[in-house]
Amino acid sequence: MDIVETCMSTNIKNHYDLAKEDLGGEIGEDILNDYVIDFIKVYEKLQDELEMTDDDKSSEWFKDATKILIPCLHRIHKLFGEIKGDFGQLCDFLDWTSQPSHFAKCWEMLKQNDEGEHTTECLLLLTPILERSLGDLLISVDKNVKVPALLRDLLKRQELFELLGTPCMTFLRIIFGSPHSLNLRNIVWHGFGFPGEISNIFASVTFLIFTSIGNILKQKTLKLSKRKMLSISRIKKIDDQNVGKYLKNINLEELARNSKLFYSRNLKNLNKILSYFKSEEFALCSVMLLPLLEVTFRKLFVIENDCPERMLTAEAESLYTTYNEIFEEFLENSEKNKIQDVLGEDLMLLMYDLLTLPDGPRVRDKLSHGEVLFSLSSSPEEKSQGEMKTLASHLLVILVILLSKKSVNLTVSKDLDEILKNYQNYKTLFHPSTLLVNSLLENLVKLEEICSVKPPTDFEFEIVSFDPFSQNGCLPDQIYMESMLLDHDGQNNLSRKEFLHNISSTLQSYRGSSLYRPRQEYEVITVLQKISDQVSLSCERVLESLKEKLELFETKEMRSRQRVTYRRMLETVPKVQNQFFHIICFTFHILVKKDNISLLDPGKLNSFVKYLKKILKICENICTNVHLQKNKWEEVEKLSTQLKSLISEYQIQF
């Protein structure tokens, strides 16, 4: 266990140390009136001692402004503690926020926060709500504006200055908007602050910022627009594959004490996390675990790459060592990031699935930026409770595995061994290659579903079967079947369903490389995914059209011209099915051989992408023409022939 006193750099540390001292000063009691901060009085104090310009403020300005502001924050905190009020009277001032229901819990914790016992939880809950709520205010002013991704950029928006006033926005910028001042949100959420390092005045003031802005908005006629909140429900997919079963008889505190990756000053937070888990307050448990995990991963990063300076907060945000930098393939000096070797591929893939990949739950980003709707209740009836329990369980398992990487005199019990093996042979769920395989599997099912609509027995047409191995089925080249690990001759005695089942099994067992892949590979997979999406939509449209036409025929509502189209359709659909099966095999073949993509010279790669885009265009045209409103089956047959011809060029050209 590391007994270091701080992870803050000197300037940041000085600000927070100053905030722990109440130096007094001539600050009137009218700076806070009935839970409303008088931002104008604070601004006037800044004006008295600083040059206030419209230009973006310098680093020195923020440092000086912070020193002036801190006594005001102390006064606000003290006055807040003296108010004998009831939370119910504040509800009207909090309706503008993204999650009004969270404030009752924060109020409860603040009333028991004299020694800062709940400062961390309050700030972890309140800062994301502030960011999300201010973003909602921005789009309420202008629905066409794009909300900035970072809080510091959001706090510079002129629309918010005009709505809330310069005094209010300046107050917010000093506390949250610069790495040269307090930078409170980032310090808390990235795990740079230890328990006791951040004064309890910040929890009180942050809470009062909401009631104060609520008071400002009461005097406006703004029609509030709130963006749709998100969820982390995709965490369940990870849990379905690898259950995050945290064993309660693991002595996590002892493991932390014996690990080089754990800071002794974080023991209070760890014990609180375990307490929240035990009391089934999984949301609080999760939001406290995320920054604790980050600082622990950062410690491993620092040890393995021998860069102790990276444990500290930086004076400029670009130098922060956060999850993004911790899991990068290379360091800033172009050397390989050695953390990969220690964590192993399984844990790396899990962390990318959990935190980074766009189609994954992205738990840290969503929770820290206030995008997730969740309850703080421990009631199992709450919809978010299951998701938060799953998340908390996985984060605890990851923490156990991580601490064990650098543990002194580690004794691996049966329970600990079970946890350490939790993610063995982990298969990424949200990487583009996995998503592509999943879509190919779905398309196989959709091709078979089309066959479920049987043509009428009393209708004459040329019967063509969906049979990939028949002559009419446009048999895929042997090279594609090799990618499917299937032998053409060995499939002759199988039914179509058995054959497709074998193909599905091959797809399901695919485990291609997915860490640190080259840009060119992602470019190709993106086009392949678009092709697969067009096949999927085409199948859905064909199925819909077949059902509608069959109903018309059976109810004798089909006119003579429609019968001609129906006949053409019944004769063409199996050909399209066979060609789409060909596309699935072709797509999977390219995916299996994707390691060769990065070996192509730029000219060859460009030609290959253009070739795939031609295939995509034909698939798009097929999709358009099979639509109920189009129904152009002659054109569809021509396009299918073109598709067959184009795919046959693959071996010749590439």
Order of helices and strands: HEEHHHHHHHHHHHHHHHHHHHHHHHHHH
Helix amount, in percent? 55-70%
Largest sheet: 2 strands, antiparallel
Unreliably modeled segments = 471-475
Please give the order of strands in the largest beta sheet: 1-2
Radius of gyration: 30 Å
Strand tally, please?
Answer: 2
Q: If you had to describe this structure to a student in words, what would you say it looks like?
A:
The protein is mostly helical. Helices cover 58% and strands 1% of the residues. It contains 27 helices and 2 strands. The protein has helices at residues 10-19, 39-49, 59-82, 103-110, 119-141, 151-154, 158-164, 166-176, 184-189, 201-218, 235-241, 252-257, 267-278, 282-305, 323-326, 339-356, 363-368, 385-405, 414-420, 432-450, 478-483, 496-508, 519-554, 560-592, 602-625, 633-648, 650-653, and strands spanning 32-33, 36-37. A two-stranded antiparallel ribbon has the order 1-2. The longest helix has 36 residues, at 519-554. The radius of gyration is 30 Å and the shape is elongated. Mean pLDDT is 90; it is low at 471-475.
Detail the topology: elements first, then pairings:
Blueprint: H1 10-19, E1 32-33, E2 36-37, H2 39-49, H3 59-82, H4 103-110, H5 119-141, H6 151-154, H7 158-164, H8 166-176, H9 184-189, H10 201-218, H11 235-241, H12 252-257, H13 267-278, H14 282-305, H15 323-326, H16 339-356, H17 363-368, H18 385-405, H19 414-420, H20 432-450, H21 478-483, H22 496-508, H23 519-554, H24 560-592, H25 602-625, H26 633-648, H27 650-653
Antiparallel strand pairs: 1-2
